[in-house]
Design goal:
By secondary structure, the chain is of the alpha+beta class. Helix content is 35%, strand content 17%. It has an eight-stranded mixed sheet with strand order 8-17-16-9-10-15-11-14, sandwiched between helices. The chain is globular. It holds the Pfam family Carbam_trans_C. This is Carbamoyltransferase.
Length: 528
């Protein structure tokens, strides 16, 4: 939502309404904003340009929107922009990869990879990686993050050689993907399950049969063995090589020393880490919402530039969600009723109390202020815990979030001291890349150190979030490390909590010890 003078008031997302991930329906978010008293004056007039896509997605310049969100959000005066995803329409073309040059004059398309039409881009890097995940036992759409996590448990194997037959980088930084691999694997798994794809031709089905025969058993959704880990590893290696090759190509074609990344593939923080560490660029910016939830902000930034509004679009934080009033918070507490005990506290008392509880091993839901844009919890819709406890990751995965055992959990730390613990050469405010945890401190923070010795770190300046920054300081005083385990505050199969009521319902349903709701500390009735 944009004010007449260009100020960004709020962005709402799929977290509202039906609270389904990847709903593709903008109406719940739109009507949610309209329902909030603070925002009602901005709707219904000539400035309300809502597009209802209930009868089909609005065909737009998908990759330009991605590129705009990254470049105009970066604060760079000029940069190369690389967009890599599953697919997105530009007119009648299905674009899968694009390189842009960003300057003060705007965005210039350098080159793109696109299919001339149809509804599915089988040569897409994003779809290739989805197919790898399906072959590795991922049983649902949008499980690419799980594939990346599982890959860390894999090893070089026969599957790497097999997958290299179908995909890889080229000497000039381009890439090749055999569409038969993607379509055949998906036709036997997710495509058939979700979209009713028909069986492949006998020739292509033989490709699937050969891949399955190379395994100890056929893939079983949600049941992972060493073959699954090795397949995920192979796909991750190839993805990293392709993305790194594209980054080098973007550098050569644009001559820029800075790179902006967007598109769903830019959610792969391990590949982003490879680009940052091994690529030719001096600076890397990955927008906080590189996936399709960032389309709206890209369109917004393009409108700001088109109208030459005097607005700084630099994304210093990701806290673009709507504001909620004290009355709405109080109503959420009342709705929880006798199930909770609620105490209002000043931060001078609340933050030390929370830091003490965390250092004693409690797992706490943390809700404050405007929600984050994008899928990462960055201290406003978070579950927080002590990273020093070796058992904490398994406890949160199994007993709190009820999800797969191999999923890593992320650290949040103060920016000034991040280098003491992580091999990090620039700030990482959006948890956008995986970096090495320094060997000497891995035993100190085991709950946020993945099996491969990496972490998807979030760095925090005091100016970005004074309250979380102070909480990190108070925890450091008690635990000796200015780091907290920070994972998304959501129930299984739901997006991040958005409203105060969402937070209270999730708290009551999950195995959490306490909930911070702005200036309120809630515990369950009967708890200490």
């Amino acid at each position: 939502m944009l004010l007449p003078d260009g100020g960004i008031v709020a962005l709402a997302s799929e977290r509202v309404g039906e609270r389904r991930k990847h709903s593709w329906d903008p109406r719940p978010a739109y009507y949610h904003l309209r329902s909030l008293p603070a925002y009602q004056p901005y709707f219904g007039g000539p400035g309300d340009q809502f597009v209802d896509n209930v009868d089909g997605l609005h065909v737009d310049d998908h990759h330009r929107n991605h590129a705009a969100s990254a470049f105009h959000g970066s604060g760079f005066e000029q940069a190369a922009v690389l967009v890599v995803d599953g697919q997105g329409f530009c007119g009648d073309r299905l674009v899968t990869t694009s390189i842009w040059a960003g300057t003060a004059a705007g965005l210039h398309l350098v080159e793109e990879q696109a299919d001339p039409g149809g509804v599915f881009a089988a040569r897409s890097i994003g779809h290739f990686y989805s197919a790898v995940g399906a072959l590795a036992g991922m049983g649902r759409l949008h499980d690419e993050g799980k594939t990346m996590a599982l890959a860390a448990y894999g090893r070089p194997s026969r599957f790497l050689d097999r997958l290299r037959v179908f995909a890889g980088t080229e000497e000039d930084g381009g890439y090749r993907i055999d569409p038969r691999f993607t379509t055949t694997v998906l036709a036997n798994t997710l495509g058939r399950q979700y979209y009713g794809w028909s069986a492949p031709s006998p020739e292509d089905q033989a490709l699937w049969d050969d891949l399955v025969a190379a395994r100890a058993r056929p893939p079983m959704a949600g049941c992972f063995d060493q073959d699954d880990m090795d397949i995920a590893y192979a796909g991750q290696v190839i993805l990293e090589e392709i993305v790194l090759g594209l980054a080098r190509r973007a550098h050569r074609l644009t001559g820029s020393t800075r790179l902006c990344l967007a598109g769903g593939v830019a959610l792969n923080c391990v590949a982003n880490g490879r680009v940052a560490g091994d690529g030719p660029f001096e600076e890397l910016f990955v927008v906080c919402a590189p996936g399709d939830d960032g389309q709206a902000v890209g369109k917004l930034f393009l409108d700001v530039k088109r109208r030459a509004l005097p607005v700084d679009t630099t994304m210093h934080t990701a806290y673009y969600g709507p504001e909620y009033s004290a009355a709405q918070i109080e109503l959420a507490v009342r709705e929880a009723g006798a199930s909770v005990v609620c105490v209002r506290m000043d931060d001078s008392d609340l933050l030390p109390e929370v830091a003490t509880r965390l250092s004693n091993g409690e797992v706490i839901g943390w809700w404050q202020g405007r929600s984050e844009l994008g899928p990462r919890a960055l201290g406003h819709r978070s579950i927080l815990a002590d990273p020093r406890r070796p058992w904490m990751r398994d406890h949160i995965n199994s007993s709190v979030k009820e999800r797969e055992w191999f999923r890593p959990l992320a650290p949040m730390t103060v920016e000034e001291r991040a280098g003491e613990f992580f091999e990090l050469d620039q700030p990482s405010p959006f948890m956008a890349r995986a970096v090495k945890v320094r060997p000497g401190v891995r035993a100190l923070i085991p709950a946020v150190t993945h099996v491969d010795g990496t972490a998807r770190v979030q760095t925090l300046r005091r100016s970005q979030d004074p309250r979380c920054y102070e909480l990190l300081e108070r925890f450091d005083e008690r635990a000796g490390v200015p780091i907290l385990l920070n994972t998304s505050f959501n129930r299984r199969d739901e997006p991040l909590v958005e409203t105060p009521s969402d937070a209270c319902r999730a708290f009551l349903d999950m195995n959490l010890d306490a909930l911070v709701l702005e200036d309120r500390l809630l515990v369950k009735q009967g708890a200490r």
